[in-house]
Amino acid sequence: MKVSIVTVVYNNVDTVAASIQSVLSQDYSNIEYIVIDGQSTDGTLDVIQEYASQIDVLVSEKDNGLYDALNKGMSLATGDVIGIIHSDDIYNSEQSVSQIAATFQQKEVDCVYGNLVYVDRNDTEKVIRNWQSGAFQRKKLLRGWMPPHPTFYVKQSSINQHGLYDTSFTCSADYELMLRYLSNDKLKVDYVNQTLVRMRVGGVSNRNWKNRWQANREDSLAWKKNGLSPSPFLRWMKPLRKVGQFRWKGISYQMTTYLSLLIPFLIFIAFSGNSDYLEHHPYLKTAASTFFSWGIVAITIPVVLKLAACKQLMDNPNGRSSHQTPTPTLGGIGIFTALMLGIVLWIKIDGTNYFQYLLAAFIIIFFIGLKDDLLVISPIKKLAAQIVASSIIIIGADLQLESFYGVLGVEMLPAWFGFLFSLFVCILIINAYNLIDGVDGLASVLGVIAACFFGGWFFATGYFNYAILAFVAVGALVAFIRFNFSRKQKIFLGDTGSMLIGLLSAIMALQFIKLNSQASENYFHNAPLLVITVLGVALFDVLRVVIVRLRRNQFPLSPDRSHIHHLLLDLNFSHKKATLFLGMGNIAMILIAMFTLPLLQPTAAFLLILLFFFCYLILCHQLQFSNPKTIKLFFLRYIRLDNGKRALKTSRLL
Known about the structure:
By secondary structure, this protein is an alpha/beta fold. It has 23 helices and twelve strands. The strands form two sheets. Strands 1, 2, 3, 4, 5, 6, 7, 8 and 9 form a nine-stranded mixed β-sheet that branches. The protein has a three-stranded antiparallel β-sheet with strand order 10-11-12, with no helix packed on it.
């Protein structure tokens, strides 16, 4: 059995060679190959001429479009079976034509078709859409189904009897031909459950919205010509059949991104005239704001990546870096955008909630962080900006700590001391997250953990504005983590993002302590100490590192590689494993504290926190001295000597 394969091409110099090679590499021996060129002007014909000796029929002349050229090629074919392979498609394997020919030889059928995958134009190994055709059922034609055109092979005798493509159709002549063959003329057809063709995205009917609209209109004309009367909604529903064919791994992020913006936008529009509805359904408002911030970051970060690449705004690796290639550090722009829009759109700002002061503090931290990411500024200037921003939220938003709530026997604090201590707490938390941001995802994951805890408590207790603020942060950080771990779209938080997370955590921590003292339900005993465990990994790490640096006569905010994440990396932990290890440790500490702190007196609870910190120091000590030649046990190191014996040596804890 001879199989004729027709390739139609016009000005497709980039892909035509791959299509020709895929035909010539088929293991089926009896192939007639026909190439119809529309008198290309971009060098396509020169490429084709390189394979002229292996092409049976080559025609290069003007035609009246794709379907006219296909009719020309099919009229020149002498094979028993005729099929096509477009100039930007390739066969999925060397056995594709053999599988088609075997089906014709084994069964008495007029037509055969198989499966097809859409692939990226520049990478044919990257599958975008998977078209699993399924076994033929004539009733499926009335629901808009059709076999994949590039996999559709027909006997020459059937084509001679039932006609070629109707060239009055510019986009849907293939659909009309299949309706005529399979519905009206009822040709016998069989299905090969194999992927036969890899088709590059961007076909004629799907190239743009204008072509898609034209193809949709011509589909209706094809039904009318063949006397079919499908559902009146089929014209509009037919394109939706393609949704289920997409490879979600590759494109789901973009699709769900736009949905994450569309759904909150529709909710916002639907109830904008009735604000009471959202106020009475806070779960809906909170969920919508979370999706909204997720979508904002998911859309903003790719733009930031393009800008960074264009302007070469990259962080080059140095002696203490955990990355090997230049990477942008402007991820905080996406976090800031999501926070600003989330607060403005989803929180009603008035004189009672003082959110305008939070906005002012976020703006200050954003710009000082952005300047540091782009130009690098001194630690003193960063500290000054942090003091200003922290003072604004403490005084303006009334987040000053007024009591130690019995810890170490201290209750009410003098106003001046309460302000200074609150200022110290804010600056400590901001720098804790700034300094812990040393491996992919760590600061973001710790920020998500803290925001989930505080946001959950705010929501359960009825403080919905702060719950929305917390979950806006959750949505933004979850979206960012995907880029932070990405290889092709990698970006870092930078000082902008990490300090914003720190400031946000400080705001939620101070507000939690203040509101908890007034709560009649969901009250936490020893709330200030519980906050320490919620922020535990970041706080413990910054305290330990500051002590180490002071002992070395270094400035506390000067950079080095003494953080716990650096110790984990030195032990060959991957970034993901280090982040998972520390994140799970933070969650475990929170759970232990939630069940034990309420049972203890304030001073006893404080001693428990000291025990947590002590265990943290021991862990860091063990990590710091872990190497193949050392065996550790708390404060002691057993050094393995060359003679195989062990020498006992004391070592300092820090």
